[in-house]
Design brief:
Length: about 325
């Protein structure tokens, strides 16, 4: 049973600062929230043991490494629970798939594929079709052009979130084997200390320090955050697809402004595909989502053709660097 955990204000502050930068030291977080270094360490451990913190992750812009991000939604047909589990297990273990969730609404499963070319994506998808094509009755593929991620200001009832960018770039950043190993190591645990990373990838501490600094400067790593079990926090996750038209630069700026000042919005994604915009929400319940959507529709009514709401039931994989190295 996924029981909800009651958090006090210190816990919320702790999660808030870890979401802003999950590599911040216990000492520094302690200073921000008025706790000793030891007390911060104890609370982090407790939140991990209770499953509230699932994973510390680096927020990477893999588009800078030349990957295109394909978001796939599939609807299943006559599928037993056992077969659905098999599909999810296969997708979660794939080294080009960075995100896998089960959903309720029009689609049953969504997953994100990172591929270096259209051909690579087609090969990956055809392999999925070959294995599970009989169960897939409908699919929808979109290509996010850019995603604005937002920090979780709602944890402290703040009115404004900070941005994290994930967008298509002109210049591709080259990374070598050492960089790849550092990215892989951090994708497993973004709080891993430099000494442990150096030991794991068999290089010196100074090399890891220098390379990590460069990966951040080159914006391959945008920031460091964390994956939470929302159910344990008493929150729900929704994806809302919006079909829009006549989106000018002014409208675009207003959309970003709306997302920044509505802290329940975690991502604003502009895409090529059957829909134009996707908003991802972390909210207490559907009522809270509905209130935000009403406000959104009122503000952008001239530009909205239609929209569709899906609820994310469970997240199975969340890995910004799923590749084998």
């Amino acid at each position: 049973l996924n029981e909800r955990m009651e958090l006090d204000l210190k816990d919320r502050k702790l999660l808030y600062w870890l979401d802003q930068n999950s590599r911040t030291s216990n000492k520094e977080i302690g200073r921000k929230i008025g706790l000793t270094e030891q007390a911060v360490g104890y609370r982090i451990k407790r939140l991990q043991e209770k499953g509230v913190i699932k994973h510390f992750v680096p927020f990477m812009n893999t588009l800078r490494l030349g990957y295109t991000h394909y978001k796939v939604f599939i609807k299943l047909h006559n599928t037993s629970e056992e077969t659905e589990e098999k599909i999810i297990k296969y997708l979660s273990s794939h080294s080009n798939i960075r995100w896998v969730v089960s959903m309720s609404g029009k689609y049953d499963i969504s997953f994100s594929v990172l591929a270096l070319s259209e051909k690579e994506f087609m090969d990956i998808y055809q392999e999925i079709e070959k294995k599970f094509g009989r169960q897939i009755i409908e699919k929808n593929v979109s290509i996010p052009l850019d995603s604005l991620g937002f920090t979780r200001a709602y944890l402290l009832n703040e009115k404004r979130s900070k941005e994290r960018e994930y967008k298509i770039v002109e210049q591709i950043e080259k990374v070598d084997e050492v960089d790849k190993k550092i990215l892989k190591s951090l994708s497993q645990d973004a709080r891993k200390n430099i000494v442990d990373i150096a030991e794991e990838i068999r290089t010196s501490v100074s090399v890891v320090k220098y390379r990590l600094k460069k990966l951040i400067e080159r914006k391959v790593i945008e920031s460091f955050t964390l994956e939470l079990d929302l159910e344990k926090l008493g929150y729900e996750y929704y994806s809302v697809f919006i079909y829009m038209h006549n989106v000018t630069k002014e409208v675009d700026n207003a959309l970003v402004q709306f997302a920044q000042t509505h802290p329940g919005i975690l991502y604003l994604i502009r895409a090529i595909g059957s829909y134009d915009l996707q908003l991802e929400f972390e909210v207490r319940n559907y009522k809270e989502l509905d209130a935000m959507l009403k406000e959104f529709r009122k503000q952008f009514s001239v530009h909205i053709r239609d929209f569709e709401v899906l609820r994310v039931i469970k997240e199975y994989k969340y890995d910004f660097y799923p590749f084998e190295v």
